[in-house]
Amino acid sequence: MVAAGEPSVQDRRVVAARWPGGQRKAHMPGKRRGPVQQLVVASALLAAPALAQVADDGQACLRGVGSSDQLIASCSALLQSSSARPQDLVSALHNRGTGYLDKGDDDRAIADFSEEIRLDAKSFPAFSGRGQAYLHKRDFDKAIADLSEAIRLYPILIPALTARGTAYASKGDNDRAIQDLTAALKLNPKNPQALAVRGNSRRRSRCRPA
Known about the structure:
Elements: H1 9-18, H2 35-63, H3 68-79, H4 86-103, H5 106-119, H6 124-136, H7 140-153, H8 158-170, H9 174-187, H10 192-207
């Protein structure tokens, strides 16, 4: 389940769908197609119905819409397709991992985010998602390592700052927890999880022996 103060699953899906990017090269007007190019075009036309089906199956996945179960199903279909583009596979892995994360299936979420990181080592949403899954499993050291990498790649990532602060608090490192959660609250002063965990960390910090 998503903790209070984290972005909604829909928010995380939108980030994931936009992150890999990638644009098709536009056809340059004025260039005549030779025999090889004409064959490629003809093959593409013959394959169009199958590609259209892939597009239908994958559209919901890449847009990050539907329930968690629907997202997992649509992204699984896209990942099994031989016609999906590499950048679409990265998005599908992330969005399916987000679906698993929302359902509390942390092991499958970690597997998808790990494969996404293998394909794109600079995917800060993947490090953030995997870090949150490790946090749910109470593997705080792995959570902090992944969340720190996400923050290194994108320093104003509120979910990663909030989750890392929560991991530090869980380890009893109240000073670092307060630092991360204060940074998260500067970006979103109404973040309820950051407010609650920071408050607890401040109370524990005041009560510790001198």
